[in-house]
Amino acid sequence: MKTLRRWWLALVVAACSSEQVTPAREEPRDTTLPRAVDLNPAPGAIEINLEAAPTSKQYLPGTTTTVSAYNGTIPGPLIDARVGDRLRVNFRNSLAQPTTIHWHGVRLPATMDGSLAMQNPIAPGATFTYEFTFRDAGLYWYHPHVTGDLQVHRGLYGIIRVRGADEPAVDHEEIVVLGDVKLKPDGSIDEYLDDNSRMLGREGRIVVNGAVTPRFRVRAGSRVRLRVLNVANGRFFNLKIPGHTLTVLGTDGGFYPKPLAREQLVIVPGERYDVMIVPRGDVGSEIPVINTAYDRGHDTAGRADETIASLVIDGAASDGGPLPTAMPSATPLPDRPVDQTLALGEKLLDGNMLFTVNDRVYPDVPPIVVPTDAVRAFEVKNTSEMDHPFHLHGAFFQVVSRNGVAVPAAELIDKDTVIVPQKSSIKLLARYDAASRGKWMYHCHILEHAEGGMMGEVHVE
Ligand code: C2O
Ligand code: CU
User: Fold this and answer.
1) Fewer CB within 10 A of the terminal residue: the chain, N end or C end?
2) Cβ within 8 Å of residue 292, ≥6 positions away
3) Residue 335 C-alpha to ligand 2 middle, in angstroms?
4) pLDDT tops 70 at residue 127
5) Are 100 and 118 in contact (CB under 8 A)?
6) Taken in order 58, 61, 64, 67, is the CA torsion positive or negative?
7) Minimum-distance ligand to the CA of 144?
8) 202 lines ligand 1 (CB under 6 A)
9) Span 108-133, mean pLDDT?
10) Angle at 210 between CA 447 and CA 159, to 5 degrees
């Protein structure tokens, strides 16, 4: 483990010094997540070996946790790419269970999407080659799409960063992976699905970049871009950094027309946010990153604030430069009447709580059939007393209204995962282009709800 650690640290250092986010007055700093090793020297081509396997990890002092991981680390190796790059992944399943890899948010051919609508599970000991070209800049992630609630919870998740032509100028970029793991006192993962875990998704201890309360080193006065994503099964995060305004550049697949200033930011499972802050404080001081209560139903409103990470000021920037004031944003899709309503609900059957779409439990949910090169309007209606994060595979969508009230033009953006609060509805427009032929899943990204039936398919024909 030690040598492996030194080996990837060397790689990180090598990668950082060859990469320039911005023409730097000072060397921009970059995330220290472990990186995938590109086996293909050709420009525009990335080839990686990826293996899912059991391994052990120390989450809590004095205990060892048996986990599942991609290439031995949680999060798995960061895949860094540019728009237009072609990725080839030589994947080996060394788990005792079948698995697949889904590339959350990435637009790719349906046969590469890793959902059971298009791919047979990869058996233990078997291999599969995923291959596709990145079309869109953004932060994405990869995870299994077979018994996802258990496999993701055991540690199978990794990050993909795709850079485009319009990256903002920054001094420092960190990828902040918000996760959650439910542990027993002996350190082993608590996989038992009790009633609470079924309702809210398994919740346990918050881990950030696979660690309990990690520290990120930052310079006061510098422009720090935090690319935050939520890989937890069920936990909703509501982040704040006391004394600091969050400048929210974008989410999921793009940028807002102008950055939004926020004091708090709710991030639901599967969702990503692109945030800038300028740290303030004396050298040596620590700025806490706090998860504050958010009412998503079922008595979640009164939870205490929790420090989940901190920013340690280890110097001052010589010249931070201005934050971006405008970013290239999405073109609005043509509005149209609702084509399909999807009611997200729950029902009790023989003492078991099931999660439903239009009162039916997947796979007993009729597919939505859409022609290629079409825009479709979906109304997603939450009839339950808890929020659900709605995720669509294979297409970006734009939320145009909430409870019938138009979303302001300042919030126009392409998304793939969105909160649908309890007892409310949203209307979204999804665009299916010529490359999107195939079968695509949609589901609640509380993985226990998805596995419990709140899932369906869009067939693009
Ligand atoms: Cu990240 Cu079908 O999910
Ligand atoms: Cu849900």
Assistant:
1) N
2) 238, 239, 240, 264, 305
3) 27
4) yes
5) no
6) negative
7) 1
8) no
9) 97
10) 65
Q: Residue 393: CB within 6 Å of ligand 1?
A: yes
Counting ligands in written order, the one closest to the CA of 389 is 2
pLDDT in tens, 13-46: 444 444 444 444 567 798 889 999 999 999 999 9
Q: Is the pLDDT of residue 300 over 50?
A: yes
Q: What's the 65 CA to ligand 1 centre distance in angstroms?
A: 25
For the CA of 298, the nearest ligand: 2
Contact 286, 375 (CB under 8 A): no
pLDDT recorded at residue 321: 83
Q: Is the dihedral of CA 272, 278, 281, 283 positive or negative?
A: positive
Contact yes or no for 399/418 (Cβ under 8 A): yes
- Atom 3 of ligand 1 has which residue's CA nearest to it? 104
Verify whether ligand 1 is closer than 6 Å to residue 439 (CB atom). no
| CA–CA dist 299, 302 (Å, integer) | 7
* CA of 145, closest atom in ligand 1: 2
Q: Read off the pLDDT of each residue in 404-433 and give the average, rounded to a whole number.
A: 97
Cα–Cα dist 84/410, whole Å: 28
Cα dist. 135→4, 45, 201, 410 in Å?
A: 33, 14, 32, 24
Q: Which residues surround ligand 2, an ion (CB under 5 A)?
A: 388, 444, 446, 449
Bridge partners of 297?
Answer: 386
Amino acid present at 298: H
Nearest CA to ligand 1 atom 1: 104
Q: What is the pTM of this model?
A: 0.93
Tokens standing for residue 326: 């405008």
Q: What does each C-alpha distance from 27 to 100, 164, 171, 277, 324 come to in angstroms?
A: 38, 20, 7, 18, 19
The token pair that represents 399 in the structure block: 């939320």
Q: How confident is the model over 313-321, as a mean pLDDT?
A: 84
* Residue tagged 């620590």 (tokens): 286
Cβ burial of 295 (10 Å; 0-12, 13-18, 19+) is: middle
Q: pLDDT at position 351, please?
A: 85
Q: What is the sign of the dihedral through the CA atoms of 406, 412, 415 and 419? A: negative
